Amino acid sequence: MTTIKAFIKSHPVLAYYILTFAISSGGVLLVIGGPSRTPATAEQFERLLPIAIPVQLVGPSVAGLLLTGLVYGRVGFRDLFSRLLRWRVAARECHPRSFSLCLSTGTLRRAPSLSTKASKGRYLEQQAWALSCR
What we know:
- By secondary structure, this protein is mostly helical.
- It is 82% helix and 0% strand.
- The protein has helices spanning 2-10, 12-32, 42-85, 96-120, 122-132.
- The longest helix is centred in the middle third of the chain and has 44 residues, at 42-85.
- The chain is flat and about 50 Å long.
- The mean pLDDT is 76.
């Protein structure tokens, strides 16, 4: 255990990428039931997609929290959470409305394309076809 911890402390970025890949890919494999049960039809793909994407997106966050605990311990968590709560924004330069606009820009920008793709169903069909070609 100490050799693994020493390796993680000496190569934290490499450990982060390996752990992120393992958690994300392993989670998707658990959702679909293993490599032999890869969805081949559009119906199977549509059924598993809403579960597989959030599982895959959780990987980087979980890996970051795990490595923060392994490398820095309680001090690292305390520093992380204090930085989440402490915002350094000049009050005279930032109006609350403009700040909320900055935070919601990404969501507002992606919403029309997601609703269009989902309503037409082309996106899911293309993804199912791409998976069946592998």
